[in-house]
Amino acid sequence: MKNIAVIGAGTMGNGIAHVFAQSGFKVNLIDISQDSLDRGMSTIGKNLDRMVSKGVIEEDVKNSTLGNITTFTDLKNGVQNADLVVEAATENLKIKLQIFKDLDEICAANTILASNTSSISITQIAAATQRPYKVIGMHFMNPVPIMKLVEIIRGYSTSNEVTQTIMELSRQLGKTPTEVNDYPGFVANRILMPMINEAIETLYNQVAGVKEIDTVMKLGMAHPMGPLQLADFIGLDICLSILNVMYDGFKNPKYAPCPLLVNMVMAGKLGVKSGEGFYDYSESRKAEKVASQFS
């Protein structure tokens, strides 16, 4: 496996492209927007610069990594020679089903199709194709270049051969693949999202404030980041989407999103990416914009 196509140049997509390219694979990064591609490549460049400054990699590794990535706005051209396609588009079932239907029609018969979905059924995604045995989940963790885990999700029809291929490929990236079965939320989010939702309920019920809740979990449970700060980092809209998938899948009230989370998403308070969530990031975002003008 030499040629990788990654669909989506956002936070997860550019991170996935980064790790494949740094591991020596040829990567086609695909997005419908050239602006998104430019932002994605800029992020990869900045992350590589940070790694160089910390002595993690040499300058030649940075240059070879960037040289391994080619950008495309046309899906057909971008996936033409791919051995593996990793879809990292927005967490929306309708969008993902259309992407996989299109991929099935334009990719070579031997191409493996993977989704970075954090909660949507791989079996359901695979049903949009004529090759369900070649469809699998590769759920990378954010930030992708740093986090070691890749949750490997087997759909109902995913073959043993494809599963083992993707497990080994993940190891080649320096990751630790962990195989799980296809149920709503898989393992990571089935455990994480109810915890985040309970932290939001705790705030909603005025048991404690934002900083106090996060402090208890950081100092009392040795979490590197409090659940409310983590929710901001993930994106409150993503948290809401995942909780809704699990609530719809299990019909269990313990997965029902807290009303406060629903209201914040409706109000556009999505966390870091919108400049405000449980914490205010507006000043840091302004500082980043000013700094980018001089970089």
How would you portray this structure in words?
The structure is a single chain. The protein has 295 residues and is an alpha/beta fold. It folds into 2 domains: 3-181, 3-Layer(aba) Sandwich (Rossmann fold), CATH 3.40.50.720; 189-292, N-(1-d-carboxylethyl)-l-norvaline Dehydrogenase, domain 2, CATH 1.10.1040. 51% of the residues lie in helices and 14% in strands. The chain has helices at residues 11-22, 34-53, 59-67, 75-79, 93-106, 122-126, 160-172, 188-204, 210-221, 227-234, 236-250, 259-266, 282-293; strands at 3-7, 26-30, 69-72, 84-87, 112-115, 135-140, 149-154, 176-181. Strand 4, helix 5 and strand 5 form a beta-alpha-beta unit. Helix 1 (11-22) crosses helix 2 and helix 8 (188-204) crosses helix 10 (227-234). The protein is globular and about 55 Å long. The relative contact order is 0.09.
Quick summary:
The protein is of the alpha/beta class. Helices cover 51% and strands 14% of the residues. Helix 1 (11-22) links the parallel strand 1 (3-7) and strand 2 (26-30).
